[in-house]
Batch of 2 targets.
Target 1
Amino acid sequence: MNEPKTPNLGLNKIDRSLPSTTYFDLDKYLDQNWEKIDEGVATKEDLEELREALGEIDVPDASLTQKGIVQLSSRTDGTSETVAATEKAINEVLATANSSSLPRTGGALTGPLRISSWGEISASSGGYVLYGHNCYLDAAGVVYRYRNTHTNMGARGIVFRLGAGLQGAWMFDVGSITTTAGEVFTPTLKRILNTDDYDVLNTNFEQSDLWGAL
């Protein structure tokens, strides 16, 4: 005789394979099934024992060398190695990094670009650009300042200027003198000659008929 059962708890099911077997047995399909269900359900005492057993499990705190319980933190300035960063903290750090750094496609700097401790690229609101050694341009106006305090470093640089009679590249070297960080100085600029200048000099030389005098 076919005895169909449920797959998980093995409860009795009605055999509908034949008309003669399709009948409802109260003891088989109700009482016996309820008894199986009752046997598989945890009692209040079972739950209490389970709760006590779980309470006795000692889960250590997480560390760099072991798994365990870890506390979440939204701080972005901490140094702890025993807490985990939240999504909020990571998002704040990412936003700060994006706003304080230049993208790969380029961007604008609002202050001097220092190379190591001595080299520096700076610009002023007056349209001047300076590549300096131990010196920089104030952003406002045209003010030269020493970058570092040194006994004999001095300062030197190449300046790109604007203005009538000032266009072009100029250089200066104050010599090996004592410098104080932030101190203002006024360099003596000397224009860097280019090919156009040599053409002018050559023309003037020819027009002066110096060759004839020689």
Note: The chain has five helices and eleven strands.
Target 2
Amino acid sequence: MFKKILLLWIIITSLISIVRWDYKEIVTTVLNNIQTTNANKTDLQKRQTFENYIPKIKSLTSIDQRVKDALITYLNAKIAELDETLKTTTYESNITNIDKALIEKSWLERHNTERNSLDLASYTISPELNNTAQNRANHLAELNDATHKRLSTDGYYNYESIKSRFSDLWVTFPKEQNGVANFSENLAYQYLSCKKDDCTTEVLAALKKCYAFFMSEKSYKWPHYRAVISPYFTQMGYGVSKVGTKIFIVTHYSVDLLQ
């Protein structure tokens, strides 16, 4: 899509000397094409699209500087507009026939049972991490894939890339101390088949299996288990979402957040 837009820009700029179009008309034409790429995207995805276009626009040499400046100004304004919306956005699970409070209590207690057995302080629930985890769970359901990747160029787990997406949702961490991570993200999925009016029991069973997967790493101290027992983290949040018969569970853990 970007190549098509770039081609459009080149054609337009080639015509400038002939038809003497006002640059504002060119900007309008190009922006209409950018808006088309954002159709049916979430506000966060739109923000990321606008953000990704800015360095591409800056790198173009075939476009009049006035056009580039106008486009970048517009994109920065749209980012600021979306940021105001994202500050107050609460993400909801697409599984509505469950007792969310009971599931949250159960998920927290499972973690704290293990932590307390090691004389570690209990986790508390963070509404901010609940929101980021739910946002991620919703996205995984859209992808139908349990992946930590935020960008296609990311490796399996790119800490800085994940951190930037926390920032997009207005969640910020203090500066890392002595190379210790300030957060972690655990992902898991199970299969869920429930057509009842209340599927709380079935979701709890799925979460139990996910937690068993985390605990299976105990003897190896692998990442999922380390997140459960981190002595540095103080809080957690979770999100669940489903596609078809697959349920995705995302858990975010962190140190105390900056206000």
Note: Residues 193 and 245 are 6 Å apart (CA to CA).
